[in-house]
Amino acid sequence: MRKSLSLFVCAFFVAALAQAQTTVNLESHLKPGHPSSYSVVKGDTLWDISGVFLDKPWLWPELWRVNPQIDNPHLIYPGDTINLVYIDGQPALTVDRGDGARTFQMSPGSGSGEKLKPKIRSTPLETAIPAIDLEAIQGFIVQNRVVEVGSLEATPYVVQGASERLVLGAGDSLYVRGVLQDSSAYNFVRTGPVYVDPVTDEVLGQEATYVGLGRVTSREGDISTFNVASTRVEVQIGDRVLPTEERSVNSTFYPSAPDVKIDGQLISVFSGVTQIGQYDVVVINRGIREGLEVGNVLAIYKRGAKARDRIANEIIELPSERAGLLMVFRVFEKMSYGLVMSADRPLRVDDLVHNP
Q1: In this predicted model, what pLDDT tens digit does every residue of 18-44 receive, in sequence order?
Q2: What confidence tier does 184 reach under pLDDT thresholds 50, 70, 90?
Q3: Under a CB-based contact definition with an 8 Å cutoff, are residues 327 and 337 in contact?
Q4: Bridge partners, residue 176, by sequence
């Protein structure tokens, strides 16, 4: 049943979800003092709003019931009112649409005596609120990527900048050597760390760290001249060039529990810190092949410290303690990126992740 429900979540809660029967006692997970309704404002996220009603935000999808007047009640807009109601004795959420979700229609009129074919375009007045704060993860969704180990060695690379400059930024010109794949724009990337599973020693992939964006201005043989359009950090000699991925920021994922048992670890953190906290982006050693999906929520467990048992005269590991939550926002075949949504104490690489 949970598998079926998850599939409906990914399909944006089609009408058949109205017939689904939840296996979770949602009544027991309602937050004490929860309101009966909530008005959505700009800056809200689905995670924030779910925390208004639930003590476990990842149960958010199970609270939804399809409103027959609304094509997709899970797209929430500023100005909408979310109501907590009871259907067949179970709590559920419904939406009363506000002005933000309404659409305006544009159709060309006739001018200068020329007849135009009527076309109608219907667009929401507001943008649907995201599941989580996209500002913290936008670059990782659109730009960073994981590739097979060694694959970057065969890609084109930066030879030097114009006027023999070695470090380059936005607006500079540079030269790239190698055969380029067809693309409207290209990413400059730097060879990043190789990720290895700490338990099995399996190589999971290699980070291609985003450096900047460039466009080709001319080509001669295997040498291409680029203009640097933007950079996250300065482009350097030896940086690799990859075609941009046809990706955009996807805010239409929702908090949900994994459908399968997940036992993994934090294997890296992007902020360069040793102690991991709220809104840090982390890497976990589980991905598509283990059944993880975008939007899945995982509990983080602080790995237990080692202690000496003086009676048995041996070193033992104390039990791990639950210390936070993360949401998966991008998945690769063998690993995933996650955003730490809450942390009760400082976390570290090597701490554990399990089903919430």
Answers
A1: 333 345 688 888 989 899 999 999 888
A2: confident
A3: no
A4: 158, 224
Give the closest residue to 6 by CA, choosing from 325, 200, 256: 256
pLDDT at 345 > cutoff 80: yes
DSSP readout, 279-317? T-EEEES--GGGT--TTBEEEEEEPPPEEEETTTTEEEE
Instruction: List strand residue ranges (DSSP E) for 90-166, in order.
Output: 90-96, 103-106, 121-124, 145-147, 157-161
Dump pLDDT digits (tens) for 61-94. Answer: 777 765 666 666 667 889 999 999 988 888 888 8
Give CA–CA dist 64/102, Å, rounded: 21
Q: Which domains does the chain have, with CATH numbers?
A: 2-100 (no CATH), 139-243 (no CATH), 263-354 (2.40.10.410)
What is the residue-wise DSSP string for 46-83? HHHHHHHHBSSGGGGGGGB---TT-S-TTS--TT-EEE
Q: HSE of 222 in the Cβ direction (CA atoms, 13 Å)?
A: 8
**SS3 assignment, position 226:** strand
Q: Indicate yes or no: pTM above 0.85.
A: no
Q: Rg (Cα) of the chain, in Å, rounded?
A: 25
